[in-house]
Amino acid sequence: MFSFIKVVLQTVKVFIIFTGCTILFYYGIMWVNEEYQNYHRYDSPEGSALKVSTLNKDENPIWLDRLILFYLNGE
């Protein structure tokens, strides 16, 4: 009889710990989401930022050049 009660108490303890950790994880994820929700990643840079790439509109690369670039960069 005592063995059954111990098993039930251990099961309830594990369930409470699991539920508590799940709730803590959920609210932690919600806090991180609220923290970065209004973070504007695509704003124009401030300060002494430099543009490091340009798009050449004059050239029309052939499909083979684009394919080789695709395989080289792994995009």
From TrEMBL:
<keyword id="KW-0472">Membrane</keyword>
<protein>
    <submittedName>
        <fullName>YqzK family protein</fullName>
    </submittedName>
</protein>
<dbReference type="Pfam" id="PF14004">
    <property type="entry name" value="DUF4227"/>
</dbReference>
<keyword id="KW-1133">Transmembrane helix</keyword>
<feature type="transmembrane region" description="Helical">
    <location>
        <begin position="12"/>
        <end position="32"/>
    </location>
</feature>
<keyword id="KW-0812">Transmembrane</keyword>
<dbReference type="InterPro" id="IPR025321">
    <property type="entry name" value="DUF4227"/>
</dbReference>
